[in-house]
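Help! Submission page says 'invalid entity' but I think these are all valid:
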Amino acid sequence: MATRLKPVDVVLVGFGWTGSILAQELTDAGLQVLAIERGKFRDTVPDFATTHIQDELKYAVRNALFEEPARETLTFRNSSAETALPMRHLGSFNPASGVGGAGVHWNGQNWRFLPSDFVQRSHIEERYGKKFIPEDMTIQDWGVTYNELEPYYDKWEYMCGISGEAGNIRGKLQSGGNPFEGARARGYPLPPLKRSYATAIFDKAAREAGFKPFPCAAANTSQPYKNPYGVQMGQCTYCGYCEWFACGNYSKSSPQTTILPVLLKKDNFAYRTLCDVTRVNKDSSGKRATGVTYVDVQGREFEQPAELVILCAFAQHNVHLLLLSGIGAPYDPKTNGGVVGRNYAYQITSSVDVFLNENVNPFMGAGALGQAIDEFNGDNFDHAPHKFIGGGYIALWTTGGRPILQQHGLPDGTPKWGSDWKKARHENYLRSASIATHGSVMSYRDSYLDLDPTYRDVYGNPLLRLTFDFHDNEHKMSKFLTDKAALIGKAMKPRSIKVNYREGHYSILPYETTHNTGGAAMGTDPKTSVVNRYLQCWDMPNVFVMGASVFPQNAGYNPTGTVGALTFWAADAIRNRYMKNPGQLIHT
Amino acid sequence: MGNPTNVRTLRISRRNLLRASAIAVAAGCGVIPRVAWCATPNSSTGSRGSEAFAYFTQDEIAFLDAAVDRLIPADDLGPGAKEANVTFFIDQQMAGSFGRAETWYMQGPWKQGTPQQGYQLKLTPAQLYRAGIRNVNEYCQRTFKKDFSELDAGIRDRVLHGLEKGDIALRDTPAKDFFEMLLKNTGEGFFADPIYGGNQHFAGWTLLGFPGPRYNYINEIDQFGKPYTLPPVGLAGRNGSPAKRNV
């Protein structure tokens, strides 16, 4: 029998980026906020100290900061004709566990989506006609526009202390920045990071090939920075241990380095760690959430009443909780009806390894130290002759040269072991780099999340089931991007290049990217979306859903910047709309 | 699997037993198999010089020495995996949480999946090694009348290629899965920080020119093309052989 606890105004399920932002914003509005986190509490001191955090085996290989499939995983299959089997260990993506969420272990690659990305379907229909969109492609408009989100992107970037070069300030193009980006109100709070040698070689080659390369915006601080909350960050030292690691230097934007020092002092905020939320509870009408049920580390069950329930867990976990709680109609691919689990998407990546003549010291780097071109992202180019939708950026990142996992591919023909392999590693480690393509994935009728009929989690609940594969549209797009990347690779005048196309089925391993999206899509129509433009559930107005789970399809950029902007946007709607008149904010 | 009356079983403290039970319960499996599993290192667990092996037997150590020596051989570029103590590294990994698949989802039902569905064996990594080594030695006895470790380098290479391609059928485990795990762990041992027992004297890092997890390159990163010449440091500093003292 669950112990009933004292009610709070707001309960947040998950205490990562979105939970931290909402906690900060909603406590500012005077609400009593409680965050419930499945993982541990952790902070820069003592957990991330540089005396032990730069440990590739422990963190990057053995996954010390990530969720443990033994406690929470999903089952996977490429199509509904197959039987889904459990993801027994992490592979294709690495969700976090613990306070700060994936904001602790990300690289800090920070982007805004393009204005056209937010009106994906109407934009494509207008430019290319309705027939350009394949019948089984279920893309839709987000219900919020870039211009509406711009102030919230700005808020996110100034909170994080993003280092970058603006490309478009209030419609005026800026030299050196990304000329394709949407107009921004002002430049980045910090100048770009220093260049690595490899990014400088890429920049020169891309320019010579006729492109407009720019330094990628980084949530790694190029200089000391104090954010609007008054939290101080230090200058990045280019140690090369960002992604899969926590930063011991206060140089990578995370909840710990930007929000928690202020939030944790507030009397109207509390958090509980090592607690798994198992249900969102509903009243007898089924139309209103009454709070959540969670299980603590001792196995005790608690009922936490709350006026407002906000799901802030990692993308697919929000969807899992909606399905377990019976909020919103589950998606059914046979009838194309229902919404929860619909429009799961991902990203499609590929690479071109470049074996250089120069010694580029790959170990000196930062998670978001990169140079990119954006000519082939979104709808920045005419898709009519290519017969596919979407695109991606092409970038050379110098994130580090960690020796177990980070050496880029070896030249074609190198064996996988033995003396020749050893020689190839010796000859190429200091003299190689890799160009990455980061491609969008559209949503489809047959890509979805639901509950598995067989496999159970530690509480006996059905695991989430992922049914997903790449489609022709994405393969065509990715090949197109990869060929462009190869052009730049050759223009870098290397000894040789190795082109790694992304072909065949999507696979649950090895690692590709933790940019899982959808399942609780936002939109303008309750028949095709779980949440409205304010991230509020259509079916239960006192439940909001955050994070990439609300993306109706995925763009060709890393998602965190957009996740941050959407969270500030939703926080604003809760503060200035919902609190004044609690109830459904959009009437259809 | 191990001898149930061995010394190691008796050494399990009450505290560890409780911890093991808690883990087993949390993982949704029975207490008894998990504790029995913790006791797997048996009385014939190997030793070599000052190193105390925690999981592998002498025969298994001989197999691994002979295998990792071919995967990353010693040559004119420097020491190989055997010299870098990778066998000991793998042993320590198998005796720990990775070897026991502690963070993995290990509930049934067990089915063979598509390649895209990833690892679907019921075996933990440590169990995979035990079965794989036993099976490869059986194959070598059948084919060459010798254990793997007694074969010439060229023949060992042939056997390893046969495992890699799946041309050799093993009795208890898919050869490719075993080989893939062995190759992956060998690379980890050669390149992980020496505190884990491998990469002794920074053998792996020296091969590459990786100077170790240094903290600050603010002044060096934009000196394009300039070699970085400081010697490797690990998490335990300049000591490239720290693990031995701790075992």
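Support: the input was valid. A stray whitespace character was the problem, and the output above is from the cleaned input. Residues 52 and 247 of chain B are 6 Å apart (CA to CA).
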